[in-house]
Structures are given as C-alpha cells and as structure tokens.
Amino acid sequence: MAKKTFFCVDAHTCGNPVRLVAGGGPILKGRNMSERRQNFLKEYDWIRKALMFEPRGHDMMSGSILYPPSHPENDVGVLFIETSGCLPMCGHGTIGTVTIAIEEGLVTPKTPGILRLETPAGFVKINYTQEGDKVTSVRLTNILSYLAAEHITTDCPGLGELTVDVAYGGNFYAIVDPQKNFNGIQDFSAEQLVQYSRILRKQMNAEHTFVHPLDDTIRGLSHILWTGNTISAQATARNAVFYGDKAIDRSPCGTGTSARMAQWYAKGKLKKGEAFIHESYIGSQFTGRIEEETTIEGMKAIIPSVEGWARITGYNNIIVDDDDPYAHGFQV
Ligand code: PYC
C-alpha cells in the first residue's frame, strides 16, 4: 500500500486559491519548465488530480510546485497545477506562489525585491514589495500576449449567436464582450456563466484550432472571459473567467487580464503605460499595464504587467493513500 504525503502552503490571491506544494512534489525530467510540464502530465498527473479535485481540493483549486531554474541567472522554476490541467502560465498562481515562497523562505532571490521565474510559457520577471515579513504586492511582467483571432461567430445553445475574440496571455481566452442578445455578466448568475462556458469552449475547440505560433505544446482554448459592468468606479473593466469544468476565477485572472489588454491594445483601446484596473467577479482588483509593444508572426503583441496581492491561509499536510477509493480525486 503506497501512502504519499504532500506538504502544502495554502493561500489565496485576491480571493482565488493557490496551493503551493512545498514538499512531496516529483523530480521532473526536462531541460526547461515546458519539457518538465510534459513529463509531469505523462507520469505524475495523478498528483494534480489528488491535490486539486475533491475531496482534498475543490472546483476552484489551483496550485504550483517549485523547481530549480534551468538557467543559472534565474531564481526558480514553477509548474502550475489546476483543476483544468497544467497551465502554461497562471497569473493569480504566480502572485500567490511568490508571496508564499518569499514569506516562507522557500526561495532566496539573488536580488531582494526581484524574482526571475521560469514558467512553462516562458520567462516571467517579478517585482515584489515587502513590509516586515509580509509581501504586500507582486507585479509580474508576463510573457508576450496577443490578439489571436477577431470576430469569430458561433452559435451557443441557450444564448444564440455570439461574436467573440480570442487572445493569448499565457493561456488562450475566448473573450465574450456584450452582444446583441445580452449586455454582460450582470445579466447572468455564476451557474449560468459556467454552464454556457462549458458549451462554448467545447464548441469553439471543435470548430477552430488555437496553437501558439512559437510553441505547439501550448494549444487549445482553455478559458472563457466574459465581460460586463464594473462594481467600483475606479475599475477600468470587469470580468468573469471560467476555467476547469465548474470554476469562475475569484481573482481578476492574470493571464486573462494580459489577454484582454492585448485585445484592447490591438483595437486601439489601451496604450502603453496606461493603468488597466481589472475587476474580478467578486470585485477584487489587479492593476495591469502594457510595458512593451512588440509583434509575433506579423501580429501586434504586447508584454503586459499585472500587479496584485495574496495572503497565506494555512499549512496543509495532505495524505494520498492508495487504499482510499478517492485517492486521486473525483468530479461530480
Ligand atoms: O490568474 O492566470 C490566472 C488564472 C488562470 C486560471 C485561473 N487564474
């Protein structure tokens, strides 16, 4: 009978969970985090399922595992685990992971206040601030983000015809702005958004192929970003990001914010340096900015930054015992 113990530090980033596996994670093969992600998916995906799904996790659960960097000038590598799979990049996951790693002394940065991170999607630079032992804010300068497709029309049962854009910010997002048949997320309950998102994602992935032009291991539309009226007068925009099978991100979603800034930039709605205050479904906020203007395969692209905060909620020694019929989690 095999019994494995994982020492986890739990936190939340602006309301969305982050479970950092600080002990018990597997040693992975691969020259970089992208190759290690493939190795994890092939040989160790049961760990993700056990720690993310019920009964040890829940629909919104999301986490990370730290690895030594593959390049000596960097500080650490991060693998993102989630109910939806192993994401190439996760913004709220990064903010939570950095907060935990610094506060708990899991990583010693070469330069205080800066962390050089390797993620499966590429290099991400972190600037963080501290007051005493507490990390008070984390700003990540994300991977290149771009608007991948515009005005895709699809018929969503229950909603009718929708016209959506697809943008990449570390994951591929279908961005559903107000339509002729509805005005935004304020018209729906969270349950309705989840239900429509599932259908829409399946349908769009069946009708179209979304592949990163420089890394074909990053493929498929994984998230749906719905937009709508803001709650706070200070916010630039609000979203409800769907992931996994039942989750609406409680944070404003870092890769979603990056994707949406890339969409706004391509449409001339956001300029380099302007603050983009993105509000989540529950009203928490990230501040985004376009740091650099660039191109990818002839398309307009940006290097965005996203800033937010996280808080540690507890320590968790999680046991996964083979004699438990639900050792590797379940979904209903
Ligand atoms: O913050 O990038 C993000 C994210 C992805 C899925 C949930 N949150």
From TrEMBL:
Record key words, sorted: Isomerase
Keyword Isomerase: yes
Entries under Pfam families matching the protein: Pro_racemase
Uppermost EC category: isomerase
EC code: 5.1.1.8
Gene Ontology molecular function: 4-hydroxyproline epimerase activity
Domain of life (superkingdom): Bacteria
Similarity comment: Belongs to the proline racemase family.
Name the record gives this protein: 4-hydroxyproline epimerase
Species of the source: Agaribacillus aureus
